[in-house]
Amino acid sequence: MEISDLIQPQTVFADLKATSKKQALQELARRAAVATGCPERDILDVLIERERLGTTGIGKGIAIPHGKLPGIDKVYGIFAKLSTGVDFDSMDNLPVDLMFLLLAPESSGADHLKALARVSRTLRDKGRCEKLRGSQDADALYAILTEEGAQSAA
């Protein structure tokens, strides 16, 4: 599974505006509703329920909110760079400014985990995250996320 299997240029956002974790999740749910055709409220409910289990803020300004959603047939990704970092209850207490949302079908076991692993490996690359933070354009963000090094990151 590659990052380009998860996101499309139209599911990458360069300047998401949010002042809180909840608002960031609402914005991602709104955008995911367009991509998936699922109701925004259903997506937000799945994300909030997952956050209740423990934060998806993995540290270093990165969050990977995710969940399983009835009614979709593949794994969907939405990437957003926030205009300003928000408190996400992350393990290292740093504000989150890079978010990669993953939504998987309810029946997807391995695909969901493979997608999470791929995104985690891609965003663990410090140089790539610096490039993402330095870009102001959604097309540039998409290119950085899907460039060759992202595909073969181990």
User: What's the CATH class, please?
Assistant: Alpha Beta
Task: Tell me the strand percentage band.
Answer: 15-25%
Number of helices, counting only DSSP H or I runs of 4 residues or more: 7
The chain-level mean pLDDT equals 92
Tell me the number of strands.
6
Are there runs of 5+ residues with pLDDT below 50, and where?
150-154
Rg of Cα set = 14 Å
Order of helices and strands: HEHHEEEEEHHHH
Tally of structural domains: 1
End-to-end Cα distance: 12 Å
Overall geometric form: globular
Helix content: 40-55%
Q: CATH superfamily name? A: Mannitol-specific EII, Chain A
Molecular structure report:
The chain is built from 7 helices and 6 strands. Helix 2 (about 20-35) crosses helix 3. The protein has one domain: Mannitol-specific EII, Chain A (3-Layer(aba) Sandwich), CATH 3.40.930.10. It is globular, with a radius of gyration of 14 Å. It has helices spanning about 5, 20-35, 40-55, 110-125, 125-135, 140-145, 150, and strands spanning about 10-15, 55-60, 60-65, 65-70, 75-85, 95-105. The model is unreliable at about 150-154 (pLDDT under 50). It is α/β, with parallel strands linked by helices and about 150 residues long. Strands 1, 2, 3, 4, 5 and 6 form a 6-stranded mixed β-sheet that branches. Helix content is about 45%, strand content about 25%.
